[in-house]
Amino acid sequence: MSKRRRRAQKSFENVPVVDAGARGKSVAKTEEGEVIFLTDAVPGDVVNIQTFKKKRSFYEGRVTKFIELSERRATPVCKHFNTCGGCKWQHMTYESQLYFKQKEVVENLTRIGHLELPEITAIAGSSQQYHYRNKMEFSFSANRWLTLEEIQSDIEIEDKKALGFHIPGMWDKILHLDECHLHPQIGEDIRLSVHAFAKAENISYFNPREKTGTLRTLMLRMSSTGENMVVIQFFQDNEAQRLALLDHLKESFPQITSLQYIINEKANDTIYDQDVICYHGRDHIFEEMEGLQFKINAKSFYQTNSQQAYELYKITRDFAGLSGEELVYDLYTGTGTIAQFVAKKAKHVVGIEAIPVAIEDAKTNAQHNGIDNTTFFAGDMKEVFTQDFINEHGQPDVVITDPPRDGMHKDVVAQLLHLSAKKIVYVSCNSATQARDLALLNEKYQITKVQPVDMFPQTHHVENVVLLELRK
């Protein structure tokens, strides 16, 4: 064993876990000030630790023994907790999850952005802590992930088929799920039925290394209106087996509004360059919010927590403080859901998005909803959002921006500073990159409101909405 490896393997005893860290990890700190990141502890625990990795300023380790258990602990509801990477905070009370999410937002804005903040509005928690996701994507595998107990046992594992999630960090390893508590029960019933039927009919599962097998992925979309979409992706097309499975779902689940499939023989399983074939029902489902209907197809983007998306959009609209006379720019508009949600309170809304198919969805939905005061444009934000664009489409009174996790390009931030709109409402799924952008905008703008929103209970992810007002 190398010296480097020996230094990484170090034991600590009676170490308090003092905080929740990034990416769902917890933070332990020794009396000597050594910091250790853990994946299996909760703030308030006291533990013995074995480290396995050494960085410049911290270790990564695992708990070998719990000495004291935290009052913040909860009993995980899922048997796959700590193996599946989907719900890393199931072992923490929901009240504590909200506390640490809001704490992360505040620390990122103050430590990274060095920003002066108003009083933070308490994080908007979710009334549903489980079964809240309206979209789930599962993978089939011919060789499922085996637990350490299975590997060490003398029992020969005959059934290695899996329908579930990728093991974190492993592209070809799938954990088979006997249960999942993230989506509504109808989705779970469909998933289990697909697996049982495929096993009974001996339909082969995909092998990503050998590039063989029939069943590849299963996508489920379940709207708050009770409509359900099932999309099955096949690698090798065995027509008889494909028809048998699709007919089984059609007959067994009359709740399915849209039953579709894809034949994808390429190396990766992304569907955006693939033809989606509608086998039964419509090629879309509808989501609804305040009477607005949003058409969702297999490739559409829509917030995966419908109920909390509504809360997020209401906060965004409230922060914008529209009177009906404002020109609003909605940057990174996606399928235009925020743009259409605020349109009835605005004079006109201009949406910009890089993905052309999303803009087509936005236009279709606006027409379907009878909204005639929105205009949508597709293109790279830094290329589209220019002074020439503003000269042509008008000086906005309010800008709403909801960028991806990487935040806004520096040219977009520079354009916002030059634009000097009266208000900017910044919606973010990553408060660290949001803090970086806000620090740049601080030159001209004052933060007047901050509202975190919990979109993903049982995980460390948190959304944050910030209102910026032009300094006087």
UniProtKB/TrEMBL annotation:
The GO molecular function terms of this record are: rRNA (uridine-C5-)-methyltransferase activity
What PROSITE patterns does this protein map onto? SAM_MT_RNA_M5U, TRAM, TRMA_1, TRMA_2
Q: Which Gene3D superfamilies match?
A: 2.40.50.1070, Nucleic acid-binding proteins, Vaccinia Virus protein VP39
Q: Which domain of life is it from?
A: Bacteria
For the biological process aspect of GO, one term held by this record is: rRNA base methylation
**Family matches, as Pfam families:** tRNA_U5-meth_tr
Q: Which residues form the active site?
A: C429, C429 (nucleophile)
Domain TRAM intervals: 4-65
Q: What is this protein called?
A: 23S rRNA (Uracil-5-)-methyltransferase RumA
**Species assigned in the record:** Nonlabens dokdonensis
